[in-house]
Amino acid sequence: MExxxxxxxxxRVLFRTLNTDRRLMxxxxxxxxxxxxTTEGARWLVRNTDIKLVGVDFLSVACDDHLVSAHxxxxxxxxxxxxxxxxxxxxxxxxxxxxxxxxxxxxAEGSPIRCILIK
Length: 119
Hints:
- The strands form 2 sheets. This protein has a 3-stranded parallel β-sheet with strand order 1-2-3, with no helix packed on it. Strands 4-5 form a two-stranded antiparallel ribbon.
- It is built from 3 helices and 5 strands; from the N terminus they run E-H-H-E-H-E-E-E.
- The chain is of the alpha/beta class.
- It has a single domain, classed as 3-Layer(bba) Sandwich (Glucose Oxidase, domain 1), CATH 3.50.30.50.
- GO terms for molecular function: arylformamidase activity.
């Protein structure tokens, strides 16, 4: 994470990974080799950046070997929103404004959302 050199003040980051290139969101079989955060990567991001929203291009922000522990690192801060399952196929690397519009579901721990990127 440190090598990405995410500048202070950046609040939202969407990660387009090899998951997109491998089209893992479109496979019917589960593939445990998807790219996701390790516990250490999540901890570094929480402690060393101003990020409040992390978006990823697969069903989980955490890699298969760190499913619970990486999520707990993000949730411990109580300030970071996780957005999973993004379709980033046609989105070139760049700086965007991102707006996420969740459904308001009472009593739910998550919600389907529509994310809008504006260049």
